[in-house]
Amino acid sequence: MSNVIFAKNAIRDLATKAKETVANESLSTAQKKRILDDIDVDLKTHAATVELHKSAQRLMGGGESLESGYGYGVETGRAVKGLATPSLSLAPDEQQGLFLAAKSGQNLTLHLKDAASSDLARTQLPAQFIGLVDRKFEPSRILDHIPSTTMAGPSVEWITHTANTVALPSPVITLGTAASGGTFAAGDYFWKLTATNSGGETVGSNELTATLTASQKQPINWTAVTGANGYRLYRGIAAGAENVLVAVISDGTTATYTDLGGAGTSATVPTVDRTAGAATVHAGGQMPETSLTPVQTILTAKKLGIFTTVVDEMLQDFPTFAGYTQVELQRQITDAENWQLLNGDGTGDNLLGLLNTPSTLSRVKGSGDAALDVISAGISDLRTGPSYCEPDVIVINPTTWNTIRTAKNSLGNYILGDPGQSTVSEVWGVPVVQTSQMLPGTVVLANLEMGAQAFVREGITLAMTNSSDNDFTNGKVKIRATERLCLGVSRPTAINILTGF
């Protein structure tokens, strides 16, 4: 028994050491990797001792161990990849008590805190221990890479902003008469214009719309803005969603432009007017004043849910099955969450995911372009674009990542390093997050710390009851998992969608 106690204490000490190593900013990434690799070896040795003891207990008891599936997973290092260790830990007698209470007709709710809402010090394993035994079907939670906070209500006020320091009035536009000679497809189109000078760009002008027939072109006219040295024309196919930069005009005296319907580039019309920029100020002198005009958006939390029905005998005869069921339900919630955060279209009960958020940046990989070159160019887009940010994550499908990771040079060597060495988890210094919920061939390159925030109204919650329909008389129990959250994107231009991989 003393060996088992020593092993369990050692596992806890190693977890603390690993956490301190990750937090130690004086160590390089390579040094941290070497230390964590050594910890991994020691952890598996101690975990084997604990496993041997548990096997002996099962043999002597003639059946399965009644330990909590979660507690067993933590002690042996088999944490579910991508999921924090739940804050619920039940002894065998407590599990039986809950089961008997459910059978007596009581409605029970078991609350489990997930990675987005848990107390890090008490309930969540250090990141390096998540997935020591890699379960390939388990998802990585991209939510872990989005700053999250609990909400005070079912919706939240959000400010979308792009700043400018131009100190110019916005132009006012009018539409000329549409004529043939363009490349537009038939449909409704919307335009806004901004003025520019050395201080930046104004907010958008008044919005105008026109219904064009195929192959038409549309003239846009305005009065030249005093002090402007140029203009930027934006177009969209929905009101308030001009997300295509049609033209960059470098002459401040220009007062007309004809939009032929070209593809343009992805861009965002500034929506915050800063009427003055910071400047040097003489001692005692008047400082420039800036007034901000934010755009308020209300986000409503959306609910994810799944349930399953199990028979009493499964819970009575195989207590660890309850733990497996809970983990499986959480896995399915995580899959749905990742899909919504990435691909949700914002209609009905769906979130508006990153891939469908208006006004994000975009870049297409050409047939002759190297994948790593396109990612590097995408990083430059973020660094020099409207948000002036460095990406903090690359979200990618495992299939797409495998293609990039196995690329070779002309000598047959792997570009991203020898496969016998440590696994590459960064590209150009940006962490890579793999999830099968990302469509193959598409990559999200973003600064999610700056650009997005997930609001978790209610973390993953498990509930069980036998009072539904005829469950009580049929000897069945329903177990349900739910989560409520919403996603706010405050800086769409901090997100770059790369396609064509």
UniProtKB/TrEMBL annotation:
Chain ranges of the Phage capsid-like C-terminal domain: 261-499
Residue ranges of the TM segments: none
Main location: virion
Localization: Virion
SUPFAM superfamilies noted in UniProt: Major capsid protein gp5
InterPro entries, sorted: Phage_capsid (IPR024455), Phage_capsid-like_C (IPR054612)
Record protein name field: Phage capsid-like C-terminal domain-containing protein
